[in-house]
Amino acid sequence: MGSFTVSSILLLFLFSSVVVTSFPLSTNSRWIVDDRGQRVKLACVNWASHMEPVLAEGLSKQPMDTIAKRIVSMGFNCVRFTWPLYLITNDSLASLTVRQSFQRLHLLESIAGIEANNPSIIDVSLIKAFQTVVSSLGENKVMVILDNHISKPGWCCSNLDDNGFFGDKYFDPDLWITGLTRMATLFNGVTNVVGMSLRNEPRGPKQNVNDWYKYMPIAAEAVHKANPNVLVILSGLSFDRDLSFIQDQGVKLTFSGKLVYEAHWYGFSDGQTTWLDDNPNEVCGRVATYMIRTSGYLVDQGYPLFIGEFGIDQSGSNVNGNRYMSCFLGVAAELDLDWALWTLVGSYYTRAGVVGLNEHYGAMDYNWCGARNSSFIQRISSLQSPFRGPGLSEVKPHKVIYHPLTGLCITRKSLAQPLRLGPCTDSYPWNYSPQKNLVVQGTRFCLQTDASGTSVKLGILCTDSNSKWEMISDSKMHLSAKLRDGKSICLDVASDNTIIANRCKCISKDKTCDPSSQWFKLVDSTRSSTRVQRSLSQPLPGKGLVPNHLIG
Ligand SMILES: *[C@@H]1O[C@H](CO)[C@@H](O)[C@H](O)[C@H]1NC(C)=O
Ligand SMILES: *[C@@H]1O[C@H](CO)[C@@H](O)[C@H](O)[C@H]1NC(C)=O
């Protein structure tokens, strides 16, 4: 009895030491790691608090603790929490109470909502309310990245909003450094504040590399001095699309292990209709190459890269965005990047003069009751946990075959069933051999195809062209083999999610054609898949014979 108690306490201790992140975070080459050196993957969602009322959105709809719990239940471990510079540099703004702030904007309905849902903050100052939200996230074990989104409270960003770059009407570099220092100081000792993103989307007519190097390092040093615990996150030029200049000249800092770069990537980043004007497979090749050249390359140079914003209209009605999303998810999975979805916000108190504007990019629905589109959250969920990184080598390195359109990976429910898409946590571990075979790790079974329109299967004769798979086409996301008659064929997904092979589609030219059912990525992983380990170690029936259910 006594020893039972002791061992269960020990178990409890071991368990909690596995799941709890120990702060502060730092960097180890391209990875963000915790105090024990184990990778922490930032899977954040943006929560706006930089708009005219200068209060975290949604607090008129739901209690902040409820919202924090929904963030957790949607699988996010972190919030990129936006703030306007003037919240901390303009005392008369910071000291307005929440009620006063909404009164001056005539948002009386919101006041009633906040009184009902978050009565404890209605008569506290805006800066105190901001701190209270951070605490509430902390109580729910949600990490926070403080993002200086803009100077003057309001919707961001345009080239001509005078908040874009050093020297703009609302962007005085000295005031900015003062504000960052105050913010870093205010949150020194608040352990769930793990990072500060120093300025969102530098942009506009004044932007230039020289001034970027002039001010960013000074600000980084000031933040680090005021709060050595936070990761210091630096954004690139042109709305955070361009960090190519780092290749020529690294940022020189007196401290190490805290620097992270940030980039943003939307479907409209390369033009509003890029994905409609050309063949999406060619666009993905072109745009992903641009992303690697301007920011993705940084991970190979030993820096963490945080995609601080990405997202789509979650109703699915924007085709341009839908096409981009599959391409984006492929890159984000392959590089196993840290990221923040735009946005949590289901609706704004007010935006662009519209009271209660519905946010179609929002993870929450209009009333902040639940997920706007749970299938979208499901789709990104496989990227919410790390595929690899320090301290996570649970099993031998292998590949998972990731399908961005669904966010699922190739596996199967049982040995008797055909290969199909399933949660990436249940993925088969694949080895990709120099002979281009895709072999289930620990077995002799390789992926092969016999005919167009039929299920692919696992076989043991792996030397023919029908079991040699290459990543082809501009996107490099078509996984292609050749039938015995020499015809190329591509991996595809049937409507019941079983894996089939079909004629390769939408490779080039046709802009009406959507290739994404045939888009896959081979993603490096050391994630264990307990269910598959179990199914592969099941004793095989018919000792000495080739087990039919493994082949078929
Ligand atoms: C400071 O904030 C107050 C209240 O919002 C505003 O009236 C004033 O113009 C602001 N001052 C500056 C310099 O931005
Ligand atoms: C969720 O997203 C999917 C895929 O884009 C779309 O087909 C569906 O209609 C969306 N659901 C809602 C409720 O918006």
From TrEMBL:
Q: Which region ranges are annotated with the description Disordered? A: 533-552
Q: Write down the InterPro entries for this protein, in alphabetical order.
A: GH (IPR017853), Glyco_hydro_5 (IPR001547), Ricin_B-like_lectins (IPR035992)
Query: One of this protein's Pfam families, by short name?
Result: Cellulase
- List the residue ranges forming a coiled coil, or say none: none
Q: Taking every annotated instance into account, which residue ranges of this chain make up the domain Glycoside hydrolase family?
A: 63-344
Return the PANTHER family for the record: CELLULASE FAMILY PROTEIN (AFU_ORTHOLOGUE AFUA_5G14560), OS04G0481200 PROTEIN
Q: Which family does it belong to?
A: Belongs to the glycosyl hydrolase 5 (cellulase A) family.
Q: What name is this protein filed under?
A: Glycoside hydrolase family 5 domain-containing protein
Its organism's taxonomic lineage begins at:
Eukaryota, Viridiplantae, Streptophyta, Embryophyta, Tracheophyta
